[in-house]
Amino acid sequence: MTENGQVAVILKVATQLFAALGYDGTSTRQIADAAGLNIATVNYHVGGKRELYLAVMERAHQAERAALEGALARLPGDDPVTGIHRLIDDYVDFCVSHPEVPALWMHRWLSDASDLTELERQYVQPLMAMVTDALRPAVEAGVIDDAIDLEYTMWSVIWCVHGFAKGGVLDEEGHRRGGGDRVALRRFRAHLHLTLHRALALPGDVP
């Protein structure tokens, strides 16, 4: 395996383990064993556990940022209501397609890797600002009531989408149904659209 191939395997395995077990619950030995390498090789290519975690979070952020920038670029300027709902669909699609990203952040919500304190400021806050700035014209135009706390509304969407992507919902028999279940995904998407439409007091029916 080439050096680039080894790095790719290490990062892939580390992402899976950090998403499943969290930073605090994952050891470098676990990552090395899962990658089929020894610890010395892992350390040589990516450094220690801290450096590896930072590399994983950077990759996750870049993927999320690219998806968000693409979604914002597609917003129709003449139809903010449709644009808001399209943005929600794009975010759901991203999280369902990349469940490791919400899983990584949900571990941090539970104080995982609490000694690494800059990631939220470095990664989360700029993305939140991108979304609220993009929606601000709708507030100024009166499409969104200016009395609504836009930032907390967006956080509510994040909490819901991350929770669904990571944990899914329970069906009548107690089985978890998540993004891989088409019926559950369709119901969640419809519920989220209706909830957001009402939370923002958007005019008209849900698109």
Automatic annotation (TrEMBL):
Keyword DNA-binding: yes
DNA-binding residues: 27-46
InterPro entries referenced in this protein's UniProt entry, alphabetically: DNA-bd_HTH_TetR-type_CS, HTH-type_TetR-like_transc_reg, HTH_TetR
Pfam families assigned: TetR_N (PF00440)
Keyword check for DNA-binding: yes
Residues of the HTH tetR-type domain: 4-64
Keywords annotated in UniProt: DNA-binding
Protein name as annotated: TetR/AcrR family transcriptional regulator
Natural source organism: Nonomuraea guangzhouensis
Taxon lineage: Bacteria, Bacillati, Actinomycetota, Actinomycetes, Streptosporangiales
